[in-house]
Design goal:
By secondary structure, the protein is mainly alpha-helical. Helices cover 72% and strands 3% of the residues. Strands 1-2 form a two-stranded antiparallel sheet.
Length: 205
Amino acid sequence: MELFFPLILIAVGAFWLKSRDQAVRIALLGQHLSQYRIEKLMETLTEGYLRALGEKDPVRRAQVWDLFATPEKTLSDQFNRFAAGFAGVDGAQARVSTLPIALPYADKLFPSATFDVRKVFAIHAQGIMKAVENSQSRTPKDRAYTLSAELFLMQHTCHWFCKSRAVASVRLQARHKTTYAQVLASVAPETRLAYAAALGMRMVP
């Protein structure tokens, strides 16, 4: 019983520190993202892709696919500008913990277990741009599948930066009905390799 109240105080203090740290990260990311319509464009595309896949008439389906060219290019351009702008963030603010649970200031306490989110955002920018350009000449369906995976992985990184990998993975499952591992397996091989290297993964799960 004597240890109960000190433990409660420690837990409350850790929660407060963690919440404050996350609030700073959310504000930082929001400051940069607020200049763009990335989330809205992403929503437009993912909903539109589902509509195109559900279209049974081939002619109509082709027309629907053509509608996405402009929002895809706009999203790619905007995320490139976002990544370039975020690259100017101080390095200490850009470190993200790879620990399985969120701990207050884990990026500073365990610097070896971190990655630089600026580099990862640059990788996402390249992956999205290449998927939009479609130099691999993928079919509209395969192209939409790859681009969706690139966007989902980018969104996962944003949530990871603000909260934790576990929270990001839960949100990915809840919003898009897919898992972190499935998204990693679905992005372009170049993205997957660069992403794994940036996070210090020997192999992507």
